[in-house]
Design brief:
single chain; 207 residues; alpha+beta; six-stranded mixed sheet; two-stranded antiparallel sheet; 7 helices; 27% helix; elongated
Length: 207
């Protein structure tokens, strides 16, 4: 699910190790700033730049460890419309329950086991996954902020059949300056009827 067994041993993320086994009973807080250097090290394809403040509260319950994550900041992601980078504000809260055991394992979506002999957890990859989860499915620039050249090309090439240029945008119902506009290709496909049905309709009309 999370791939932490491979990621946690990378030396370049040693600063994200939390020594659970040595923590006293009770609450402990850790703060991290996830900047552009962090995203480069994590080798992220989706997020290249950003600055996110991550606050982690670790509660040692004696039998397990309750980790609460609170992330807030700005990341840069490609705009779905023009593909230029755009700033995206994110906030995310999440939780992990960590237990000590003989080897790395997972129990459900938010319960993991780490080797007791190591007694520590590296949260670098978890932090990235939480950021990725906070990115909306559709992310586009605010109105008027898209790359004008790309917007112009989209207006020119997104047509259906030999329609007049003046009717093009009306038929497609696309406002390229409206951040809420999307192209529903399933709806467009439904307007193109199957020729077999057209022939059948002719037979019915002639009877």
């Amino acid at each position: 699910m999370r791939g932490f067994t491979k990621r946690c041993i990378l030396g370049k993320f040693d600063s994200y190790n939390i020594p659970l086994k040595t923590l006293a009973i009770g609450d402990h807080s850790f703060d991290y700033i996830l900047d552009t250097e962090y995203f480069k090290k994590i080798d992220s394809l989706e997020v290249q730049k950003g600055k996110v403040l991550a606050k982690v509260l670790v509660k040692n319950n004696g039998s397990d460890y309750d980790l609460s994550f609170n992330l807030e900041g700005i990341i840069q992601v490609p705009c779905d419309r023009c593909l230029d980078d755009m700033d995206l504000a994110i906030t995310h809260q999440d939780r992990l329950i960590v237990k000590l055991g003989s080897d790395y394992a997972e129990e459900g979506d938010n319960i993991i086991i780490i080797p007791e002999v190591e007694g520590e957890i590296n949260i670098a990859w978890f932090l990235y996954e939480f950021i990725a989860l906070s990115i909306p499915i559709k992310h586009i620039h605010p109105p008027g902020k898209c790359n004008p050249m790309m917007s112009s090309k989209l207006k020119k090439h997104l047509t259906i059949g030999p329609v007049d240029q003046d009717e093009e945008n009306e038929d497609l119902d696309i406002d390229f300056e409206d951040s809420e506009s999307v192209i529903d290709f399933e709806d467009l496909d439904s307007k193109q009827t199957d020729p077999r049905w057209d022939e059948l309709k002719k037979i019915i009309d002639n009877n």
